[in-house]
Design a protein that fits this description.
Elements: H1 6-29, H2 32-48, H3 57-76, H4 82-91, H5 100-119, H6 122-132, H7 137-144, H8 151-173
């Protein structure tokens, strides 16, 4: 694509993909302001180093946003800041204040699930997260760069490993 067409094409890609990129990041980190900053980083990467095939921008953006969110968690030094998320939601009027017990239980459950997810391979983790976010098998195959015919098996095996790790985590808690 000629360079003079890139800004217009970039604006089109931004308008087309920004809402879903932002929604996915908010779903992963729970903080809209931080998610907006991270979404901006995703699109800066798109502008500076676009994929060779612009028709595959969606899966490319997903891979980039996943890496940026992981980097965000690494920099923050922990996987979840539940209190900040709850403060944001309360200020936005989206929920009532939960009891302290509910906060502790939710925090514990999320920590356990994230811990179990982190024990999985990168491919298994991404496959499960993509499926949970509503991606089709074809979209998952494209994002993971695998043959679409193996996605079902990959998801079943990843879910099996996740379940096995969850059960061993529960046994350790007792």
């Amino acid at each position: 694509m000629p360079n003079d067409q890139m800004p217009a094409r970039y604006q089109q890609l931004f308008r087309e993909h920004y809402p879903s990129v932002l929604r996915k990041i908010i779903g992963l980190i729970g903080d809209r302001a931080a998610a907006e900053d991270l979404a901006q980083e995703v699109f800066i990467k798109l502008y500076r180093n676009p994929p060779e095939d612009l028709a595959r921008t969606g899966p490319w953006l997903h891979r980039v946003l996943t890496r940026i969110v992981y980097d965000h968690y690494r920099k923050a030094g922990r996987l979840n800041d539940l209190n900040e998320k709850q403060q944001h939601e309360a200020l936005a009027g989206e929920q009532t204040y939960p009891s302290n017990e509910a906060v502790v239980i939710q925090s514990w459950e999320r920590d356990v699930v994230r811990g179990v997810l982190n024990k999985l391979s990168e491919r298994d983790r991404q496959a499960l997260l993509l499926k949970e976010q509503g991606y089709s098998h074809a979209e998952i195959a494209e994002a993971l760069q695998v043959n679409p015919k193996i996605v079902g098996t990959l998801l079943m095996r990843a879910a099996s490993r996740f379940k096995k790790n969850m059960l061993s985590e529960e046994v350790m808690e007792q």
